[in-house]
Design a protein that fits this description.
With 226 residues, the protein is of the alpha+beta class. It is 54% helix and 15% strand.
Length: 226
């Protein structure tokens, strides 16, 4: 008998090829899927609580829950049936995701959900618990830092050139002039600056300059190109 025939026979005769599910296997599936759902909900709540971006997306947050559960299901299928695992490897290898990730930290949450689904699907509960604790600590440390989320883009529309008057009211704040557009008598000044969100009185002072029409402050998320 050839080696190929021996491998084929061993696979067909193994329990992994058997589609019947024992009671213990069924309980393992139910427990793992339930734990994955609970962990996914926890990741969802953590994402909502410590979100640092500009626009919060509830649909993306809910996707984290489904991603954890689905990854757990795939891991369970791969670990219990070698034939299905080979088919999934081939199917998943041709999948391409083209959704743009606008917030860099969202990538961390995606991998967090995926890895939690994998570890739970493999019944590595201790590793999943330790991973949750470490990731939560990382998120809390990043959220507690004062320099995260303190960058803003300020857009000032005015009549004439008011650059010196505007910058003189920024005090000791760190700022960079990103662009300056002049259209006839109107000027648009774009400045990136770091400031405390509780201390924005300077915006009212700038708005009080005689030739200034309006002042807009936008939290900077790294996507502005000046």
């Amino acid at each position: 008998m050839s080696v190929r025939a021996m491998i084929k026979k061993s696979i067909l005769e193994s329990d992994m090829y058997n589609q019947s599910i024992s009671l213990s296997t069924l309980l393992t599936i139910i427990v793992d899927m339930a734990i994955a759902l609970i962990i996914g909900i926890l990741i969802y709540e953590i994402y909502k609580r410590y979100f640092l971006g500009v626009i919060y997306s509830r649909t993306f947050a809910l996707t984290l829950v489904g991603m954890t559960v689905l990854t757990c299901m795939v891991t369970l299928a791969i670990s219990t049936n070698i034939v299905i695992s080979l088919g999934m490897v081939g199917a998943l290898s041709i999948v391409r995701y083209r959704t743009a990730i606008k917030e860099p930290l969202d990538i961390m949450y995606i991998f967090w959900a995926i890895t939690m689904g994998i570890t739970i699907g493999a019944s590595m509960y201790l590793l999943a618990a330790v991973g949750m604790v470490f990731m939560l600590a990382i998120v809390m440390i990043m959220h507690s830092r004062k320099d995260i989320g303190s960058s803003y883009i300020m857009i000032v529309h005015s009549k004439g050139d008011v650059e010196k008057d505007v910058t003189s009211r920024l005090g000791g704040m760190s700022y960079t002039i990103k662009s300056k557009t002049v259209r006839q008598d109107n000027t648009e000044l774009t400045i990136q600056l770091d400031c405390d969100e509780k201390k924005m009185e300077f915006a009212d002072e700038i708005r009080g300059i005689g030739d200034v029409n309006d002042v807009t402050l936008i939290r900077y998320n790294g996507e502005y190109h000046g």
